[in-house]
Amino acid sequence: MDLEAIRTRLIEIESPLGIQGFLRSPFAISEADLPVALHPIRQATHDQESLGEQINQETRTMLIRVLVKPLGAGISQEAEEEVEAYLDPMIQALLAHPSLTSVAHPTPLATIQRMSLVSDQGITVIPYPDPETRYLGLEFTIRLIGNINYSYADGE
Known about the structure:
Elements: H1 3-14, E1 20-21, E2 36-38, E3 41-47, E4 55-70, H2 78-95, E5 112-127, E6 134-149
Parallel strand pairs: 1-2
Antiparallel strand pairs: 2-4, 3-4, 4-6, 5-6
């Protein structure tokens, strides 16, 4: 899977919602940049049996962490309301793009069969970049399914 291309497509899907995305997680985030989306890669399973010789089906999990407000910022309930305003639009945007297409990239990625929304954590506290710096935000889990063609090494 081309993870940089996947992140690029996710950023393009999030951008119309006013969320700034990063290809790589920055060392620090300025409060002026909020809300921002981070896209950590998680585990994958590999199936080299089902699709035939020299085709690996990869099922990869990724997180989308949307940091909206520093924890403790604002008046009572204000931060939670601000975070909540992104919940349904993010769900709708992810559901609307199972092929990870966007205005800039109307063609699906060749190696991705499908992206699906697995779950969300609702409004949650997200530590970033260290355990002492925390943000109120949203966390979504997505699943990517794609095929990887491969060749055997000489002598195999």
